[in-house]
DNA sequence: CTTGGCTTTAATGTATACTTATATTCTTTG
DNA sequence: CAAAGAATATAAGTATACATTAAAGCCAAG
């Protein structure tokens, strides 16, 4: 990253994904430039890049805020994410290489301990590698990019599901179904298994909306 | 569009979609600022926004070019487009409202004449409205945005298929299958019909690669 | 006391000046 | 004559100054 604007963009992204900057928070150009010791120009450029991807919203003459999602929008994104992830799984079932499949099975085995001991932190790390291997096996970098883009926009509303004790074990079982289907080389089954995993049988929708209302309440109490 | 950078961004987008700016073409900040009578700042900001969406590529200190696609990337995008469009069709089959369905049927009827007389220009216009109505019926603005984003990036390589005489009639028949499935409220059938339409039974892949090599050759002869 | 309008202020948007890095060209040396 | 290196030029990246607009605060009038 040679340009200051890219550095700043990365830092803002990180702060949003970590929840340090929350939806609705104002992103002031001057504040950014002071915090990161650059002039307003690269700070502003960073904001505009993020606005182009939808992570922040800019209204002319009114500054930028971290994008807030309505329940409808969040559901739409989750629906789309399920579509993309399940397609990636279907592709992976057809295209994954032996060594990638071995790695996938290994990660799944490695995550078993974390799942059974409800160790969310370790499990989340494994989960990231698990899905990453599927994107790689799918041999479609574009769909992987869209998935990452969508996940980053949902992050604030969608993160916490793996912090629920019951979800970790359920997730591991669902992962197992995906692995099985990919191992068989069955794209339809992999697709169905992944869709079920992302939506967790529909419960994730309810979680999402519940989380949104909860977080909105906690904002009011600030 | 209150900001000059938004105006410039729109103009560049239009020039790219119309083929006036072609993949690989350099986008010079100074040239832009002179052509559109603005300073370098908004010109540069326009470029950065487009770079964030992937339509142009910026390499630090080396300026920006309209993104070129390798065959692999183009195939990946088409694959993803098929996934998104077919999902939108499935959703529309479940959610479309009566008046939207009426409009869809009307557009399909209207396009029949254009299809049979091989009037590509009229048909392409109808085609746009047809797909737009499906996005609307799908009640998922996010997936519609991703589709539009993907189409804009594929535009240069993917446009011309409806200028082939045989494709127009085939497209109309495929549209008919989609309409039928949506009318029945059958999401699986709508999904399959739309996937088949986007890929036209696999021929579009071949077309895409052929078009790419052809256009690359014509660039060399400039 | 409240409301409407004006004034001031602060932040966005734009222009331009300045810095830095890269590429090209010219010169020098082998 | 060729190749390598230095110098210059050009364009990207950054900083800052200026313009413009919206928002907030204040004053006056009803």
From TrEMBL, chains A, B:
It holds the Pfam family GntR. CDD domains: WHTH_GntR. Coiled coil: none annotated. SUPFAM superfamilies: GntR ligand-binding domain-like, Winged helix' DNA-binding domain. InterPro entries: GntR_C (IPR011711), TF_FadR/GntR_C (IPR008920), Tscrpt_reg_HTH_GntR (IPR000524), WH-like_DNA-bd_sf (IPR036388), WH_DNA-bd_sf (IPR036390). The keyword Transit peptide does not apply. GO terms for molecular function: DNA binding; DNA-binding transcription factor activity. SMART domains: FCD (SM00895), HTH_GNTR (SM00345). Keywords: DNA-binding, Transcription, Transcription regulation. PANTHER family: TRANSCRIPTIONAL REGULATOR, GNTR FAMILY, TRANSCRIPTIONAL REGULATORY PROTEIN. This is Uncharacterized protein. It comes from Pseudosulfitobacter pseudonitzschiae.
